[in-house]
Here is the input.
Amino acid sequence: MHAVDGISLCVSRGEIFGIVGPNGAGKTTTMDCIVSMRKPDSGFISVLGFDPLRQRKALLEKVGIQQQESELPDRMKVWEAIDLFSCFYGNPADTSGILARLGLSDKKESHFSALSGGQKKRLFVALSLVGDPEIVFFDELTSGLDPRSRRSMWDLVRGLRDDGKTVFLSTHYMDEAEKLCDRVAIIDNGKIVAMDTPESLIRSHAAALSVIMGIPESFNESELESITGVVKVFRDGGKTIAHVQDSSAVVEIVKLLVNREIELGDFHTEKSTLEDVFLKLTGKEIND
Here is the structure.
């Protein structure tokens, strides 16, 4: 089995591009090949006009990388790590500004071992930015973070795009990709199964809405299937769920239930998500 199996993609300058899929799908391997940390068995890669293998040093001057798992010596202080990484670049960025942006200004004198998990994550993000890169690669940027820290990282990524930088990120959080990315590639078993904007992927591969209803099992569900705009009707966990193309079908469902004097235990709608798209295209949940 190949970790990455003949994928092809193109990322535009100034966009947030996400590669999404479950753990083991090939996301990190893809990123490692792009930034010259792993040698591909075949194929061609060009990043900012550089060949990652033949022009590795020149490329690494232009990109920043936050890896999924990284470590520093326990006794190294935050400012020491920042200064060390700054020495790797000819024109480093304003490191004090980076620390302030990531909420680490008051941690400059702290040892690496004294940082919390979230602070360590933010430090590695800071280290990926000290070279003032044109492209930033984030591998599972928000994995393990609490909801508030996740949103803070999302704001950072959007800010980097607003600064004119290109962001390439991998994630297994579908809501993160849906809210954050300009375009998304869904990868499964080393293959890209779909690639487009989140909105276009949802529109092309999933029903617009799901109608969740608590109606008696004795009700004939085929009546719902006869309504124009209803794509699919099924039972799940004691609820009846109808996938519909638009809100007009929801109105017709309500009319039918009222006419049949059906007593509802529950009735609400949910918009389709990128996770619904993933489930349809791969046939499995994101955490399978």
User: Anything to note?
Assistant: Strands lie at 16-20, 63-66, 135-139, 166-171, 183-188, 191-196, 209-213, 230-236, 239-244, 267-271. The chain has two domains: 16-197, 207-271.
